Amino acid sequence: MLSDMEKTETIIQIQQLSKQYRLGQKVVFDTLRERLSHIYRKHPDHFSEQKVVQALKDFNLNINKGEVLGIIGFNGSGKSTLLKVISRITPPSTGEIRIRGSVSSLLDIGLGFHPDLTGRENIYLNGAILGMKRGEITTKFADIVAFSGIDEKFLDTPVKRYSSGMFVRLAFSIAAHLDSDLLLIDEVLAVGDFEFQKKCLDKIDDITSSKRTVLFVSHNLVAIERLCHRTIVINAGEKVFDGETSEAIEHFYNLHKRQTVPDNLLSPDIIRSGNGDVKFKKIQILDEDLNLKPEVSTGDNFTIKIDLDVQQKILNPRIAVYVKSNLGQTLFRLYNIDSPQCLGCIEKHASIYCSIKNIPLLPGNYYLNLWIADQFNTHDFVEHAYNLIIWKSARLSTLNTPESGYPGNVFVEHKWKMDTSSIQN
């Protein structure tokens, strides 16, 4: 009699899975090296209190054979932890996970590579770690190298001299040529150049057409939308949505909007990273007279005002505003280094102004990410600091354009004319 997993061709079945990490004393040992180092440690650390971080909580998920499942969420939400549990890198704290078939994974740049070995040697090493036999690697060696795009002359060079882009190209190429039933891909594709990313996405299409299963974690929602019919959203270790990708992206976008508090970017609910020497405190949209501007339309002039909370003096700050589509695409960046004005030194609480003329964005929903750094460190990065809604301007209303919407994100003013004088009879 067939089991439920066989009847439905379910390749992964996760039930009530939880994963906890303890900060401080190591109580659970996930690797042999950690166990041995603890045994031979003369003075093990002791902590009377231990903080527990709940990376995954009561997680349930079924994945069918041949599916490409997208996984999206904020940084630190538990996406990578889920893939590590599935790939058996780390065990779950509680719950059950059942997997039918072999698993290959691409979770981190250089994972399974030895820096002192050459590219050629690492192909065999990494392929063996992923479960390939030496003869199989030899048969596919030329295809692996060709797909990676790495020149033959670099194959006998130690990979510690490779760029991060070369690393990820070679790692993906090895994993993609392994005939495993399940391929796990984390955000590492963000490292490759545009051409290689396109190549990877096409390869994933080929993999899924052969009924292999892919779990794809990415902040690139365009790639998620292209590849995945089904997507889950993870927030604070819990699965908060499971369904069609378009609906999942909308749900994720709404989560972003809920965490946005532009009048108080110092709120503890704001998701941020950086050393905190300078933090974004507040962001406002002002008109040309520096009054609050409640609405922005295509072609408007306006100013972005950013208030800073300064804890440590920084010299020649680098400040950027990233304008993103609701799919997470960076449409353009406003960067103070590109402006002739130098901001000098920031020693106390200050306000920064960035003026924009003729905003070219078409009507729709966008958001702003904020970043500040000096030459050496990122001080603060706030994702989705402001929801920017662009309204239809009177100028666009006069155009002969369907009300249903415009293709793309940008409107460029243009004129057309016809010259018939050069047409020969």
In short:
With 425 residues, this protein is an alpha/beta fold. It is built from 10 helices and 20 strands. It folds into 2 domains: 253 residues, Rossmann fold (3-Layer(aba) Sandwich), CATH 3.40.50.300; 126 residues, abc- transporter (atp binding component) like domain (Coagulation Factor XIII, Chain A, domain 1, Distorted Sandwich), CATH 2.70.50.60.
Q: Can you tag this structure with a few keywords?
A:
425 residues; Coagulation Factor XIII, Chain A, domain 1; six-stranded mixed β-sheet; single chain; Rossmann fold; alpha/beta; 2 domains; 20 strands
Protein model, in words:
The longest helix has 16 residues, at 194-209. The chain has 425 residues and is of the alpha/beta class. The protein is built from ten helices and 20 strands. Strand 15 (318-325) and strand 16 (330-335) form a beta hairpin. Residues 1-6 have low confidence and may be disordered. The protein has a six-stranded mixed sheet with strand order 5-6-7-3-8-9, sandwiched between helices. Strands 10, 12, 15, 16, 19 and 20 form a six-stranded mixed sheet that branches. The chain has two domains: 4-256, P-loop containing nucleotide triphosphate hydrolases (Rossmann fold), CATH 3.40.50; 272-397, abc- transporter (atp binding component) like domain (Coagulation Factor XIII, Chain A, domain 1). Helix 4 (119-129) packs across helix 5 (134-148). The chain has helices at 4-8, 32-39, 79-86, 119-129, 134-148, 164-176, 194-209, 221-227, 245-259, 394-397, and strands at 10-23, 51-64, 68-73, 94-99, 103-106, 182-185, 213-217, 230-235, 238-244, 272-273, 278-286, 296-297, 302-310, 314-315, 318-325, 330-335, 345-346, 350-356, 364-373, 378-391.
